[in-house]
Gamma-glutamyl phosphate reductase (Tessaracoccus lubricantis), 826 residues
Amino acid sequence: MEFRDQAIAARRASVELATLNRAQKDKALHAMADALAAAEAELLAANEVDVASARSAGTEESIVDRLSLTPARIAGMVQGLRDLAALPDPVGDVVRGWKLPNGVSVRQVRVPFGVVGIIYEARPNVTADAAGICLKSGNAALLRGSSSALNTNRVTAEALRRGLTDAGVTPDAVHLVEGGREVTGELMRARGLVDVLIPRGGAGLIQAVVDGSTVPVIETGTGNCHVFVDADADVEQAVTILLNAKTQRPSVCNAAETLLVHKDIADRFLPRALEALGGAGVTVHGDDATRSYSDTVVAAKADEYDAEYLTLDLAAKVVDSIDEALEHIRTHTTGHSETIVTGSRTSAERFAAEVDAAAVLVNASSRFVDGGEFGFGAEIGISTQKLHARGPMGLPEMTSSKYVIEGAGQVRA
Amino acid sequence: MEFRDQAIAARRASVELATLNRAQKDKALHAMADALAAAEAELLAANEVDVASARSAGTEESIVDRLSLTPARIAGMVQGLRDLAALPDPVGDVVRGWKLPNGVSVRQVRVPFGVVGIIYEARPNVTADAAGICLKSGNAALLRGSSSALNTNRVTAEALRRGLTDAGVTPDAVHLVEGGREVTGELMRARGLVDVLIPRGGAGLIQAVVDGSTVPVIETGTGNCHVFVDADADVEQAVTILLNAKTQRPSVCNAAETLLVHKDIADRFLPRALEALGGAGVTVHGDDATRSYSDTVVAAKADEYDAEYLTLDLAAKVVDSIDEALEHIRTHTTGHSETIVTGSRTSAERFAAEVDAAAVLVNASSRFVDGGEFGFGAEIGISTQKLHARGPMGLPEMTSSKYVIEGAGQVRA
């Protein structure tokens, strides 16, 4: 189907989806899971084709790994759909309600967006995850995956659509958007047909979507996350938090990328921290002050303070004051998750008030900024923008609202 | 000051504004009100210049009227600022909060956006209103008014900035953005410096901002609002609601523009309704079925069902069923406020569930869809988009949120 026909079909489907109750949606999610599980052999075969093409095109092994499906990964996708069925349905929730003085009743009710476009890279699990999250939140999904995963995504989307049909829900709730680059452009400019676009991937993808879209975009993901170790931090705590934030899973957006150290604690903190980081395989890229504590610290280039390494690398800098730390963060933050380790209430409050980010952490690891850790059960991404949703986005963040106003003939005086 | 310098100054000011408490902001609002009141003579003189230019350029009298200030209108602007001081401060409100199983505390707290751009037409009161709403919600304001109101806006902005200074708040919280069309373009593409753009004006202005902006936009305002009179509506109630929705203030976005009548009630409803509308000076533009009830109904052109008249005109059409009404609304709605008059619970529930709009009304006038009527106290506009805010936008809708996460050294396992 051409993109425009898919978008129109999705729009039409969204009317039906908006009126499904939770039981109908949960039944559909289980049917999608069943159909996906039944397609395992076909999925693995299609994925083998994609993986072989990627390898012969000389694709980096880390990307090939992301692209690869295994029976365990398919089981994860299947379980993800079943887990969604176990979550509460946000649609229909009354956010607030009141009566006007004349007795008219006003309720603000959660409703689906309508049609959601997801633009993503070569992770085939996103196809099932995003389709499931959209379905549970009552939205039709236009899934624009990477061409490198096309065969895998086709089999996945076909299975999901079969599941929908089995459950008596229109298969037009889920579309895989195929075609060349120009189709991505059509999707980004389909204002009126598509209600919101969510790019999931690296900084380049997100920037391209932000720049090229007339459809409203929810930005997710890039994180140049700072850890500021204040003058009176507990050294042991600071080392533990830094190490966890940097090394517990370095490839994700809430991992630490830059360390700022107050000069008054540098003598006590840095030798311990550098030793621990070195032991964990982290390469520290520091300024002269940091380098004076260890020969293992390499010189940081100026632009490294803007880097989102996503690897076992860490930029580091000694600062004269909390003011300098705040100014540094203001200049280099991507607005994701920023941490202070401090024993001072004043510093903690100032940092929490002045740092402009989706999450500000005091004496805790930034790895907690995550829909799973927050107890959301499902996460479509971590929004780093200020409109609509900021921080981890669960099912309620995948909805809009509508005022339902009921009277008995009242008019305005 | 050049636009870019203003935007940078506003960005810097936003850091200070985010940390002001309510008392400081209320003091500033009263000081802004005082300074504006003190500038009355200067304001009237500047406005006379703008009005004279507009008249000599042959501007429509209705637009000249909007542009014109009187002592009473200035008093209204002054009072508007004082009323804002009486409203609760949304900044710092904890939207929700909980503890993770490991004891880490998570709070989602309202914070200002940062820098808000307002692009508006020749209503000089918007300069003071928008500056006040931005200040109370902790945002710096970049005000891009119409060049036809430039002299008036300059005096207003200067007075507001003096008031800020008097209250000890940085005057860079408020900027009037001057210059040619290219400056509007700069404002629309100032992503990173400006957090959100709110166009206030007609459909053309809003479309231009939506199309040209890389900064996130909140769409406000256009309303092709329908009134559907269902088969078993109370005829008296339907006439009263329709008349109020159409005539109580026809120039505003929540006024009715299209009437849909179920064929089974047309014989009883339309003669009464057409007589009442005629008596109120409304010209009805109808289909053949509507015209069969009165010679006063003029033939509707097809594109009139998309019209936002904002005058004493009303498109009308007889439909065979609620399905046809829903389909008509789906095709022609601008997503503002849609009304059903009905005695049937089933029809009311279906209409409320299936109509995709900011507000759906059952047996009440769409004129209630208004920040003032909702009790919000102040309104920056009525959002017709689905992201962030939908419907009347009060002070809380002028904020984003931030997660503040506090621990005692916890890390992720």
